[in-house]
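Metallophosphoesterase: structure, please.
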Amino acid sequence: MANKILNRWLPMLALACMSLQAAAFNVSGHITCEGAGVAGVAVSDGVVVTTTDASGYYSFTSDKKNGYVFYTVPRGYEPAYANGFNPQFWQQFKSTNTATAETHDFALTRSDNDKYIMIFGADSHLAKRNGDRTMYNNGWIAALKREKNAAKQSGTKIYSTILGDLTWDLYWYANKYNLVDFMADQATYGYPIPLFPVMGNHDNDGAVKPLTDNTDLLASKPWRTFVCPNYYSFNLGRVHYIVLDDIFYTNSGTASGTGMAGGRGYLDQVTDEELSWLVKDLQLVTDKSTPIIVMFHIPQFRLNSSFATYGAGRNYAALAACFNDFKTVHFMSGHTHYNYTAHPSYRNITEHNIAAICATWWWTGRLQNTNYAYNYCQDGSPAGYSYWTVDGDSLQWKYKSIASNGDAQMRIYDMNAVKNFMATEATAKALVKAYPGTVPTFGTYSDNAVLTNVFAYDTDWRVEVHEGVQYTLAANRLAAYDPLHVLAYDYYRYKSAGSITTTFATSTNYHMFLSQAHTSYLPITVKVTDSFGQVYYKTIQRPQSYVVTMDASQAPYDLGDVNGDGVVNVTDVTALINKILGNSPTGFNSIVADLNGDGAINVSDVTLLINKILGTAQ
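Here you go.
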């Protein structure tokens, strides 16, 4: 009898205890999946970090300063997505009064997502100017839809981020386009995959009074109200993702622009409060072999002209130290609008700085007046994104253009044509004269020089250059200007307006390679092998025109066409066999003879070539 009474009252007692417990805190709730509580889920307000109990219940006391509560999506689950793309892992507080207790419940969905694709874009800079929203929709959104369709065909999940500067603070009031408008546009355009966004310096409210103790907090309020927390974490499969806000917005400087209270100044640092939250978050990642991907806007590490990595963030050392115990850490950043990979002295950390979705603030696309198709960043990279494939704890990546032929990894320049254009074309001559030291003439390059821009180059990549089928050329890395950006922005901007914005002018980049050709007419073939053994080829016929549409004429070289006649057939097999036997066939292009990419030319390459020919014949 006593047991029956006890069993009857135990659930009621548990609920009563839970109610008393909740009364001691001002934030509480449940995290469930299919009606059942999910244990061990981290929940935070950006200061306190707690976890759910066995029933999925959490509670804590918050100062409510940040205005939100969020949970860290656990492995094997996903949040709900509003409009198909907006993850609902957070909620705004209902009251700023800390004496007001409130409840925030969340529902998860189970997901087998150890294998997936992650798209890292950066710097969309939508501002309702330059036809930017049209280019964004036709470029970035269209590219994501292609990626989603391809992932669907292979049964692979796909996610995305934009690494800050979704908008442009200068135009929030001038053009009446802010974060609310940005989020509305994503719903209108049908943003096709989940988006985990990152806050950038231009996503702050410049109408906030500058240089007060609360400037940074108040300036980020629209983001924290309409987009998501300005820093948070989530798990996708075995990878732990951390989003940080590494902008301390001061709004310092002279006010300029409609609605601006200051000069939109900022410091590139992570606040102490945020670092404290980060330490608590990482303490819950008990397996230190877990890959960590940290996403923020402003790079913490950069390269100098000698290709050496240096710390750039104001407190980069304190940030890096938080990850000392972890084996593999990738920093993902934007802000610069160009590509580079940095390897700091913290050997477990690699930083990937990603070129911009908007390229040169959408200028190059507008200037061409050709359906906005030709958008190039200041380093010559096409507007694009970093494409990552994740399989458990295995990570691979490459850069892709938002153009329909998005897998291009390089561009080759016949510097004879570039030099001739800059020295003889009337507008080019006037441009160089008007902006000496800013716009290069390329006149110092020797005759028959060849320049290759390898957009996402890393130090373990190989760049090989052949001239015709008889010459192998050295490929020497150098810090240099990209000629196409000079043409696509500097030249056309000057031609249309009689001036350029020098902060948008072509900038030195660190992924250029110089080769000295023997002739002015033999074709150039470049072979690039990336960190994962993926091989890319590109060939140009010389003289190569120096025009905005030059990418279209730089076709991938056909692997196996060892005699360079434009066709892969039995004559190539004969030439390949003779090469292996030491008969030194004439007209042999060894750069496309290593079909399996193992660094040697042997019988296995012959087998692959024969299979390729037979496959083509069928």
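Notes: The two ends are 82 Å apart (CA to CA).
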